[in-house]
Amino acid sequence: xxxxxxxELIRQARxxxxxxxxxxxxxxxxxxxxxxxxxxxxxxxxxxxxxMTSVAAGLASEGYHVFTYSIAxxxxxxxxxxxxxxxCYHNLPVTVVAVGAGLAYGNAGYTHHGVQxxxxxxxxxNITVLxxxxxxxxxxxxxxxxxxxxxxxxxxxxxxxxxxxxxxGVERGPLAIKPAxxxxxxxxxxxxxxxxxxxxxxxxxRFGMEIAVYSCPWLKPVTQEFFKPLWEHACLLTLEEHVGxxxxxxxxxxxxxxxxxxxSLSVREENAGLVGSQEFLRASSGLSVEAVxxxxxxxxx
Amino acid sequence: xxxxxxxxxxxxxxxxxxxxxxxxxxxxGGGLSMADLLAVLYGEILRVFPGTPLHxxxxxxxxxxxHACAAFYSALAIKGFFPMEELEQFGRDAARLMSHTSHxxxxxxxxxxxxxxxxxxxxxxxxxxxxxxxxxxVYVILSDGELDEGSNWEAILFAPQHRLDNxxxxxxxxxxxxxxxxxxxxxxQPLAEKFRAFRWSVxxxxxxxxxxxKQALGATPWEPGKPSCLIAHxxxxxxxxxxxxxLLWHYRPPDAEQLGNALAQLGCDR
Lengths: 301, 270
Description:
The structure holds 2 protein chains of 2 kinds.
Chain A: H1 2-15, E1 19-23, H2 32-37, E2 42-44, H3 49-61, E3 65-71, H4 80-89, E4 94-99, H5 117-121, E5 128-130, H6 135-147, E6 152-155, E7 175-178, E8 184-189, H7 193-207, E9 212-215, E10 218-220, H8 228-231, E11 235-243, H9 248-255, E12 261-267, H10 278-284, H11 289-300
Helix pairs in contact in A: 1-6, 3-4, 7-11
Chain B: H1 3-23, H2 28-33, H3 35-45, E1 60-63, H4 69-79, H5 118-131, E2 138-143, H6 150-161, E3 167-173, E4 176-177, E5 180-181, H7 182-185, H8 191-197, E6 201-206, H9 210-217, E7 228-233, H10 256-266
Parallel strand pairs in B: 1-2, 2-3, 3-7, 6-7
Antiparallel strand pairs in B: 4-5
């Protein structure tokens, strides 16, 4: 996903002389091509995310669309007030990019687990919050943001996420990566959508049932109407690599029209501090394919 | 030569006192301490266009110590960025002039209030000028207590690294912060040496000496390739005897009698 991001940023920067990339001393083997091609619009701000974000706001106030780039919590929680005041309150075109959100840096430890960011970023004024599932959605998000620069948060996975579908436009609503007129649907945000898709295939194999799967990269601004395709299912099982509080499932529960039953799978708070691979940590919170199949089966009976 | 800025400083002080009295707001002491600084900046140094506040060639001013905005708004109104009558709306419900600096006011670049934001934004603006070959300058006014915030020191590292000699940081060093004397809370001294160690060009002046302020601010950058830091040694509450060097006036607005007394000391009417 990070490769898709930088390639699209480079493509856009060739078209738009106002694009600017600021990194927080991270991006090894990712951002170098941008830095080489656009030295006048690239900056390594050092390990100083508060200043990185304020500098980005300053640059944006003078006409640039600035992307700040770092990993997990560093470009969000570490400099939250700079995002809140300097960027969002002034309605400046700064896109905060977090790479390795969720549990992608699983064995790096709790400091690197980005599992509270959506809850926090969603509360900020003027911000667009995007959480793509695969490289295609990442490109879709980038095109939307570059077309209309504004305060925004782009929550990315890390590397090697497989393409799940052909994206038709992230701004239109939930993306049906496996359409079906099923009573139960799976809905996910971010790279965990791949687990939802695999679980649906497993349910088809085991039980012969077609289950719809949606990827929901667009998380703010949203309305009840925006998620209308989801409400056509009687029951939703949501997946997110984020704690339940303030997350994707909670967002849908707040918006749902009343006819839809929603069960949510999220990172369990009691797992804070648990370290291991992304797969291990997902499984520990009931977010493995097997666990999702089991949760879905319970909802189906 | 500086009589014009002296009159301007007096007017800034008088309006500041009237505003905080009327609105029952705080921070009059830190407004009075930087009144001379504002008078010299707006009277003789800055390139600003009150009729076209967002003129691309304007110098950018960021009041990072946003709590002292009554004095800042006074200076802007006197310069003609908005009508003087609007100062009477200061702190009222739904007013444009709230009691921390708002970017919705003509002449204001950035909203501040939470400390430690202005210098980083100023670095971004100064960097933009460098990258776009802009000739304008960026002036950031900081408080002393504000320098407790670590984010400032990130920016202080950043500015010389990128040779931002179009950036001027001005510290209103009045020696009293929110809940005590600076030297007793978190000592900043030796402050000039700190900035020099971070590769800034530094000068220290009496922040109430208009000639010294004009001489220093009129000659930036003092060293090509380096950002400039002017440490202005000031007196909190300067100009009103009973407010000078008193922590109380970080919080208390003057009542009617105190306002009359203060304005009399300045030689002004109510």
